[in-house]
Structures are given as structure tokens and as C-alpha cells.
Sequence to fold (378 residues):
Amino acid sequence: MSVAEDEIEAPKAKPRRVHRLSRTDKAIAYFLLLGFVAILLWPLTFFVVGPGEVGVLFRTLTVGTETEFVYPEGINAKWPWNRIYDYEIRVQKQDETVHGLAADGLRITSDISILFHPKAENAGKLHKAIGPQYAERFVRPTAVEAVRNTIGKYDPHELYQVDLTQLEKEVMEAIDASEQDLVIFDQIIIRRIQLPKELNQAISRKLTEEQNALAYEYVLEQARKEAERKRIDAIGYQTFYSIVADALTPQLLTWRGIEATVELARSNNSKVVIVGSGKDQLPLILGSDIAKQPELPSPAPVDPQRYQLPDFNSLPKLFPSASMEQDSQDGEEDRDGEENASSDTGESGTEASQPPETGGSAGAPEGSNTDRQQEEVR
Fold:
């Protein structure tokens, strides 16, 4: 090696410089890391329970479904490995069509609406025992079975006229008898009960005939009232004529004829007035011999008790067989009444055995009056 090479020295290596983060940088880094972790764990740790709902906790690593409590509405927290099941506790509605049998075995179809909601504090028990499909697994079978059992107590004629409110009450009583505390049944609404078409038409015809029979009863009663009205009207007319007969003098009739002639002449309608001849000079329409009528005796006033309507029950029956059955029933009721009356009047038997003061001839006019009325009716 030459001297020149010895004199050249090797270059010294520069010291390595280490970069250290300041406290501020470290704090920012830590916050960024925590924020990133929080963003990743937020949907797994925090959850929101919506309005009208409760949350049921399922512990994945421990006991499973939590039945002691439920999460209320709002923001709640859990461990990331646990799960939450939401249950709506508001009133829900479910429509169903129920096919059942009446008391006589006839097929009946009814449309119902079920109003229900789960019991909030027992949502965990409901989730563990039945599950989220509780409406299909529990609510529907319970309501359908209660409706079938209730309808099975009635025959079709009763169902045709049944009070739906009372029927719904019986269905609710059948559901409440199950004594379950998972779901609350608010109401069972029976919208329609459908009977077989032929039976429905037969019942409609029967009810129509019954209403027609009632209408005939009303017509007969109206005819009786009309007969009584005409009788009273006829008595009034005859009594009126008997009172005014003495006042109808020829001078009064002549004066009334003159008034009628004047009124006829004043009328605006087309007319021809023909005046009669003679001393009366009355219009021909009234007759010229009105003042020359023979003097007749005045009609006597009418006694309202003389002309009575016949007893409609004594008229000949259109259906003798039906009338005989009715008479037999009336006879039995009369005998029962006589037996009761005889027991009550036992103490005063001596007084009742004495004859009345008027004698036995008092009843004769009544019997003759009844016979005369029957002859007039015939």
C-alpha cells in the first residue's frame, strides 16, 4: 500500500436520528383508534328500541333468553355477542274466516277480526315459549277454537237472529277461561255469520210469513176500530138531525136557497143560473117545491147504548179446530181461576148464597139484546 493511500482516511458514519411522537400526536392517535373501534362496535353494542316496542335480550354465551326484564323504548346497550329481538306491544288486528258446525251439525261460516297485543313484561317468556310468530302459532288457533265452541251451542235459527254483541261476549269469556298471561285479547269482532243459502232463504220466507200474519192482525184491529168509528158517527148524525129538525122551517130553507143563489152568482166560473117560478123564486137546481114538503115528525134522539157492535169473539170461526184448542186452553185457565177464587171466598159463603135484590129477571134484557145483535150480524 502506498503512502498516499495511507494518508487518505475513511469517512466517518453519521449518527442515526430517531423520530419520536409528541404527546399531542399520541393523544390524537389514541382518539382515532378509539373512534375507529367505536364505529366498528357501535351497531353491535348500542341499539334503538322503536316506539310501541320492547326489546328481548338473548345472551349468546350464558343463559339464553332473558325473561326477567325487557328493554324499553330508546337507546340501550349490550355486549356485542348478545342479540336483541323486538316485540310490538301495540294493539294488532288479524282477520280470520272460521268454519264451524252448529248445534244440529249444519256448516256455518263466520268472518271475525282479532284485536290483541302481547303483554310487555312477559315478552321474554313469550319469545322463549312460542317465538316471534306467536300470532300464527297461538293467537289464531285460540280465537278460532273459542268461536267454534261458542257457535256450536246455537242452532241455525238462533244464529239467524242472535245478538252479535252477546255472542262476542261469550267468545271472550271462553278465551279468558284459558288463564294465559302471554297475550292479551282486547276484543273478538264477529263481522258476519253466513248460513247455507237454502236455509237462509227458508228462514227469510218464514219470517216474512210471520210478519204478514201480524199485518193481518193489525188490519182486523183496524177494521174493528173503523166499525166503532162509523157507529159513533151514525149516532151523532141521527142525534144532530133530531135536534135541528124543529128548526128547519120553510122560511129558513128559502133563505138558505137565496144565499146559495147569491154565492153562485158571485162565482168567477162560467155558469148559468136558472131561477124557478112561483112565489119562492129559487134556482131550479134546488127545486121549486122545497117549501112544499110535507111536515114529518122529528126523529127521536138515539140511545148510544142501543146500537152496540157485536162481540167479535162470538162470530163463527174460520178454523174450528184452532178455535177449539184455544177454547180448551181458556177453559182450563177459567177453572184454575175459579178454584183460586173459591178458596179466597170461603169465609163469606153465606153472604154470597143470598139472592140479589133485583131478582133473576135483570139478566133477561141482556140475553135478548145479545140474541138480537147476533141476528143482526147474520
Summary: Residues 285-291, 345-370 have pLDDT under 50 and may be disordered.
